[in-house]
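so my prof wants the structure for this chain in the tokens format not the other one, which i didnt know existed until like an hour ago. anyway here's the sequence
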Amino acid sequence: MNDLFSEQIFSVSDLTSLIKQTLEGAFYGISVEGEISNFRPASSGHWYFQLNDNNASLQIVMFKQKSWRLPFLPKDGDRVRVLGNISVYAKRGTYQLICEHMTKTGIGDILALLEERKRQFAQAGYFDEDKKKSLPTYPKRIGVVTSPTGAALHDILQVLGRRNPTINVTILPATVQGEGAGKTIAAQIAAANRWALADVLIVGRGGGSLEDLLPFSEQCVVEAIVASAIPIVSAVGHEIDWALSDYAADLRAPTPSAAAELVSPDMNELVEHLEQQVKQMANILGNRIALAKSRTQLFTPTRMKEYFTRKLEQGRLRTDDARQQMQYIIESRISAARAQLKTFDRQLSALSPIAVLDRGYAIVNKLDTGELVTSAEMLKEGDSLSIRFSQGMATAKTLSIEENNN
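here's what i got, hopefully its the right format
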């Protein structure tokens, strides 16, 4: 133990001030290279992020007056070299590097790993849009796969409680950071499906660095999401954060709170919509009742008598019209038949043998047989004949026969 401070008791402020002076005085104008994660640009224009390697991480701050000069916008996964000074933030008891300048040196190992996994999963069809399932409109049970002690769960429960406290929430606790976290997340997704614990699942966690979110990009988690029969909403980190679970899930939410908003119908909106439907139905029923009342007023005895009297009169008029029309048709048809009959009579009269007799001809028949005599050869002397004239008949006897030799 260092005997230099063995007899001295420091206040927290004094010790922090001593550390601050020591670090800031010794680490000035140093260059550090690493991979960016948890990049958070503030509304003030300042940039806050971590610089990582395989074994450690360093908090970095780059103020607005320095950041605006950079020709590129850093992002998680970039490998960069920064130049700056170590600073101690006394209120939190932490140290950080104040970045004065930054140059981009390539893509970081974590981002390269994620891009390779993303390519492989895409080729396997894990991200295909036609495999996405629709979220239920009115879920009765919502499952949440996340850390039981994290802020994400608190935010989700707060939103669900505010929007729709009637929904049952099943918490499936999982480790969301570090070694083995991916397996616990995948196992809880599988358990929710095995026991049908929810109508929709929220899988996620609060914000963190790129490496903190790695469990949600592991193959076991992506495959569990793809295999899930329950629709899944991925809610990993803040809006700028991402994981491969976002691509495999049926829907990606920018934050856990947003995921709770997406899966839960607002009870107030439902009640308001229901009240509007009730009012609309009441208006429709009221209008129909008013119409029915107005119609029933038309059916008084006096109105009914007038109505049926008018109907009877209209029926009589139609009957009279029909009778007149039928009489006209019958008379027209009789007149036409009579005219046609007269025409036939004239035609028959013109062809009648009687008409021929009027021109001086006669009809001769044998008196005994009634045979019509058309030639002298048919007669012999002494035959009795019946002769019919146009007016009357006479009998005669054949005295002699003269044949026509022409």
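also thought this was worth mentioning. The two ends are 181 Å apart (CA to CA).
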